[in-house]
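Bench log, entry 3. Co-assembly request; chain sequences pasted below exactly as received.
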Amino acid sequence: MSDTREQFEHVYQENYEAVQRYVARRVAPEAIQDVVSDTFLAAWRRYADLRGEPTPWLLGIARRTAANHRRSGSRRAALRERLSTEQRHVPSAGLDDRDPRLAAALATLPDRDREALLLVAWDGLEHHVAATVMGCSTGAFTVRLHRARRKLEHALQGDERSPIDVTQEARSLP
Amino acid sequence: MKPDPTDVMARLCAADPAHDLLVDEVERARLWQQIAATPQPRNAIARARSRLRLRLLVVVVPAVLVLTAGALAATGVIRIGAPAEPSGGSLPELRGGGLVKGTVRLLAVTTPDPAGGPPWGMRVLSTKAGEGCVQVGRLVEGKLGAIGEDNAFDDDGLFHAFALDSTFAKHACTLLDGNGRIFLNATVGDMPASAWVGYGGGCVPSTATHAERFTEKGKPRALCPQADERNLYYGLLGPDAKSVTYKLDGHTYTRATIGPEGAYLIVTHASPTQLFNFNAGGTQDIVPVDGPITELHYRDGATCHLSSRSWIGGKDACTPALKVPVGWTAPKQPAPTAGQVETPVQARRVRSASGAREIEIRFRSRVAIEGARSSYLFKWHTPGMPPQIYSFESTHVDIAAGQLVTQNIARFSPTSRAGRISGEVVFRDAAGPGNIEEGPGTVERVVGRFSVRVP
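Structure output for the full assembly:
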């Protein structure tokens, strides 16, 4: 029992910062600590399920935890309302302030395309690690990442011409 | 105009909202105290111990194989080194996947490298999840592998064969068609000439973004010399294909496809000014995209002219439009109708084992879900969320017909806005060519809807 706890403490200490940053990028500030806590508590209960590297496994749990977490009072809600398109949850907390156009373009992407981009650009994961987080093969991940890059650039080009074009061009993509 | 994704990634990196985030050490210590006071399930401890014993076995066996391979090092233009596979490099058991034994086949395709040395080749395999994969790499003595250069394998100059179920062989996968054939076209850019994209070193292209230039631990990676970057365009066009036409450096070439798979493989130098920065990634589609191929020729005289929209891919990439690849056969089992999947969906508020409040969705599946072809998708709205916004979750396991499916979604708390959490369960089936996520032929059927009031 104590051996297992010691092993997990090592995993916890090594990955705490990475998990906190991952969560901070995807949920409202007031929800960060709750999601981080839920992630590590779930990981502790499921530690026996760990196969391979702990980091992608933990981020996979964090991803699901964050996705299930209710967001409240989010400024992103206002952004979503401005964009009349088939957009979904926008896991890009804080991006609105730093680069509003990028936030708007990112919001037009399907969730999985967006997550593929953020795992590489923000979380700095290698493709095979990010693929584990997303629960897909490395090949499928690289395909998704490549398409997501194209779609985002396309959406940004449209955004910088006219805000209305963003939705129209995003819809034209397969 | 084609976009330049490099700028997008740089812009994203610069906008990282957690860039300046500091760790709250007090909170970190408090959470660990909470975890340490939480008992772990007894069966979990037993499983963890048995896994530790298994790991010891796994470490010993590859070590013996490495020594044996070194002793048998062959001679020739390039010497043979140890097999390339490090730990954790085999095809994942995702959705019951993994290699189907006996399906790995080297194709009779050899394409010279622009700078010489061992040619490039390709092999195919099938997975238990019903997918077919194409792997590419350097070819030596009938084996696919990588070369110890470009910072890979300590630049030992030896040939390192890929394991049969390698994930570090550059590969692309798609669902098999109704005849068990693979129809797939892939483009890989900025690939090291070593053909190595896995652990144990290897360089990244000079065009890689800041985030891609560092390991997870923050250690800088070696940059590939521009002369050692390659673009690969490869695929399987099926038994009806005859040849492909492509343009390189102002010249037009037509090359016959190989074998009943209709295989082709083109290898070029990567250019620092090429439109797409792939960073050893790439794309795949039902027709060749983002590459020099301009025409696909078939035995019946038909020709697919890749249109100006070919960079987007899909059925519109060809003129005349290809609804499905020539020779592709639909799965023997057609996609179920809406009436065949519809079933009552029950939803209720529950508390998870950790005490969190969630919505539990339950329904009895009327159809079987096997492999990578189909899945259930859960979509839901929470109070205050605009109607066009939804959260989602999908199943990743096989499900038998008649099996009770239970999925917890939509965690909420006492501080959440009151109202109704409503959504639907959708059955997805890749009835057309391509994969369930990216394929143009994926159909969706509503299984049932749910709505639960949250206080």
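Chain A touches chain B through 90 residues (CB under 8 Å). The CA atoms of residues 113 and 147 of chain A lie 8 Å apart.
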